[in-house]
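Fill in residues.
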């Protein structure tokens, strides 16, 4: 082989490592895998636990409770009945037919079984008390991922500031692969809980390092907004195909099949990271980043983080409670439990890609304000559905609105750091991920308990009203102040207006006059 031909793959590899687009592809696939694993368990876990624990326990008890067959020679029970029609007494037998004497003529009456409670409709699960308790258990299982991620995120933010984004990104892939394989072969609630918690560690590494890497390679605010919209499209696509994919594969192939497919996807992502990201390369930030606690004291960052938290808390509460509510009220088969989330996923995919561009033009604060109001309204409409078709409108509006909030708030987090702090992004995206995690930790864990206490409709009312009440706070992000020395390095075409303030007083010209104080105040 000629030397020039041998160098072609290395040239392509070197060009790929210098390409921002391939970095975007790597982050897209990582978020896709994380959120497919996040949602693929939503329709599987409730029905899997019901099948293995409730039906399994009842099937083991049933043989011991079988009633003996009635003896063939035993005389059927009989009773007397007085007829007011012809003043005769008739003996009614418990056999398949009874003989009745009417005016000297015997007629045969069919035997009727004793009245019993009607069986449940076809497809509706039994065990109402078990399903009520399962709301809490499934909620805690789903929340374990976010709770672990909540604890790990600050450490990952500090780690990315010290060694760069490449190694944490690869660590996230390895942990995510182990979690996926563990999901495939777990047969008990405890093992599923451990696999879900392990996923939280891998997700923390992947999301914080991935978003921070995008913010560092896309320095222009407009380009960063577009890149974040595309990356969140990977998140949306994972949410889009996760729940329907999981429900269909579980119904027709088996529990392990969707997780094995995701494990193969994780291997592809790992190979792509090895080629593009050089995970053995340590690239510490040249500038020391702003500490996490300093960023947490910034009210504008807190408002943006709160919008991310509460908007995503709504769908986080739906994940464990909606499938069980559908099993109880709609008698839905397994495949419908995941398909109910399909409208939300499709509209979220449309919203993130559409408002990744539009939010920059209309104002990201306004985009997030409208989005949170629509989230609240959609959640209020969910309990009105009588069948799966009635969920299309509310879930579609919910996904579209969350896409508006996410695609507006993720670039705002990076912009606020550029505007008010040091332009190092690991810590601020750790805070953004913490906001997500708080929504997905508080939502499922409290949602199951609230449903058991006051019912599913009231849960939707509570979280819907919270989102509508929080929406006006997004107006605060319309005009965030910035230090004067930071304005010089920002793009002047950014639609977000800024105020400036200085830490020193304006120097006054000599000689001083009586009106000089007034002039200084007007200048400020």
């Amino acid at each position: 082989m000629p030397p020039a031909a041998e160098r072609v793959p290395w040239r392509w590899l070197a060009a790929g490592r210098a390409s921002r687009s391939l970095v975007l592809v790597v982050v897209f696939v990582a978020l896709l895998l994380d959120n497919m694993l996040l949602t693929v368990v939503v329709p599987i876990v409730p029905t899997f636990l019901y099948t293995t624990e409730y039906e399994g326990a009842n099937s083991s008890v049933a043989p011991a409770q079988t009633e003996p067959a009635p003896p063939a020679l035993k005389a059927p029970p009989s009773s007397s009945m007085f007829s007011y029609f012809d003043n005769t007494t008739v003996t009614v037998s418990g056999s398949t037919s009874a003989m009745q004497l009417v005016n000297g003529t015997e007629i045969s009456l069919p035997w009727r079984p004793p009245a019993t409670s009607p069986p449940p409709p076809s497809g509706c699960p039994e065990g109402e008390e078990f399903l009520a308790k399962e709301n809490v258990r499934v909620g805690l299982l789903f929340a374990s991922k976010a709770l672990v991620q909540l604890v790990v995120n600050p450490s990952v933010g500090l780690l990315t500031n010290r060694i760069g984004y490449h190694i944490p990104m690869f660590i996230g892939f390895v942990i995510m692969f182990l979690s996926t394989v563990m999901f495939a072969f777990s047969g008990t609630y405890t093992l599923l809980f451990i696999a879900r918690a392990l996923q939280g560690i891998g997700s923390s590494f992947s999301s914080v390092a991935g978003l921070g890497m995008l913010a560092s390679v896309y320095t222009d605010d407009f380009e960063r907004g577009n890149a974040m919209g595309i990356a969140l499209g990977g998140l949306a696509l994972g949410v889009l195909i996760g729940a329907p994919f999981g429900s269909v594969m579980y119904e027709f192939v088996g529990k392990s099949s969707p997780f094995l497919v995701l494990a193969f996807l994780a291997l592809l992502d790992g190979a792509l990271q090895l080629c593009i990201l050089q995970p053995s390369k340590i690239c510490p930030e040249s500038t020391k980043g702003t500490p996490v606690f300093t960023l947490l004291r910034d009210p504008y960052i807190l408002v943006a983080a709160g919008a991310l938290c509460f908007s995503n808390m709504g769908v986080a509460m739906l994940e464990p409670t909606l499938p069980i509510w559908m099993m109880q009220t709609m008698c839905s088969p397994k495949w419908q439990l995941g398909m109910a989330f399909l409208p939300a996923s499709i509209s979220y995919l449309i919203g993130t890609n559409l408002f990744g561009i539009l939010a920059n033009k209309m104002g990201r604060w306004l985009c997030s304000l409208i989005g949170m109001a629509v989230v609240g309204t959609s959640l209020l409409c969910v309990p009105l559905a009588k069948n799966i078709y009635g969920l299309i409108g509310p879930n579609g509006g919910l996904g579209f609105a969350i896409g508006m909030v996410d695609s507006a708030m993720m670039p705002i987090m990076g912009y606020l750091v550029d505007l008010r702090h040091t332009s190092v992004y690991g810590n601020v995206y750790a805070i953004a991920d913490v906001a997500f995690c708080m929504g997905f930790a508080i939502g499922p864990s409290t949602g199951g308990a609230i449903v058991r206490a006051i019912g599913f409709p009231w849960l939707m009312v509570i979280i819907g009203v919270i989102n509508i009440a929080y929406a006006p706070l997004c107006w605060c992000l319309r005009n965030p102040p910035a230090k004067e020395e930071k304005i010089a390095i920002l793009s002047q075409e950014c639609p977000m207006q800024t105020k400036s303030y200085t830490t020193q007083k304006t120097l006054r010209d000599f000689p001083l006059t009586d009106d000089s104080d007034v002039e200084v105040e007007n200048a400020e």
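Residues 9-53+128-278+289-485 form a domain with the Growth Hormone; Chain: A; fold (CATH 1.20.1250.20).
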